[in-house]
Amino acid sequence: MPAARPGDDDQPAAGISAQVARLYQDAALATRPYEAGRREADAQRARAQRVEAQLDGECQESSRLHEDLGRIARAQYRGGGGVPMAARIILADSPEDLMRDQHAFSQADLAVENAIGRSHRAEVRLAADEASAASAWRALEKRNAELADLKQGIQRKLDEAREQLQGQADASVAAGSCRGAVRLGRPPSPEPASWVAPVETVELSAGFGSGGSRWANRHTGQDFAVPIGTPVRAAGAGRVVRVSCGGAFGIEIVIEHPGGYCTQYAHLAAVTVDQGDRVTTGRWIGQSGTTGNSTGPHLHFEVRVTPEMGSAVDPLPWLAQRGVPVG
What we know:
It is a single chain. The protein is α+β, with helices and mostly antiparallel strands. The protein is 50% helix and 13% strand. The chain has helices at residues 15-81, 85-91, 95-175, 315-321; strands spanning 222-224, 231-233, 238-244, 251-256, 262-271, 278-279, 284-288, 299-304, 312-313. Strands 1, 2, 3, 4, 5, 6, 7, 8 and 9 form a nine-stranded antiparallel beta sheet that branches. Helix 1 runs antiparallel to helix 3 (95-175). The two termini are 32 Å apart.
């Protein structure tokens, strides 16, 4: 598990937010080797099955060759193979016929015996390969079971921390007062692009212009279905012009970008910026939640011409025009 970041213990009120952020990273770190191990185990299992099929085929071929050798032996007996050599010489039409028959049987017998030898060696080799592949597969399955246990343990802790984080957020909204910025640092990797999607893993839910009983008019943004505590990123560089709690949007952030557009991030569980802060593209600005008029965990992302409601434009084409295809 990654080491605690400096300053986490100095902010008791922010402890659960920092814990959720750490557990998200821990879950990602645990998932990568688990998924790689699953793929490797699947490949090893497929290899073991292929070798097993080859071994079955070789065993069938060996059985067929043994039957051929038996047929040759029986043919030799029926053709005089059981008669003493002296008698066969006397009964032969000519020495040439005797030698020719004997040579033909010997060559066939030798060819089948050689084939049986090759088949047996192939069986031994394939059996060893099968045992090796099966052993590697079992070892990978055992390791994957350990990784799965680790991953599930992290997930349980994350679920518990998410519940606490949302509880704090609900209390803040009920009181109409945000807890203030929780400094979680920056994303693990810098964002070289000018614009990014507001969450790293995109799963779209309610879209711009959707109708329904949840909204007085039409839906004014794009919803991203993400679990509570998911890091939310600034879609682009700009200045934070609003951090507020309460109301239909719950905990929300509005960022004003150069060029006049604003982006809104709503139904959050926590914020990591203060009003007036300047942010860079991809900076963590909050954590998703389900505060305000929300039926479940998600991020409401809105693009506006002004910081105020009523000036929204469709976020997906807007992002696509800036090199961020979503969905």
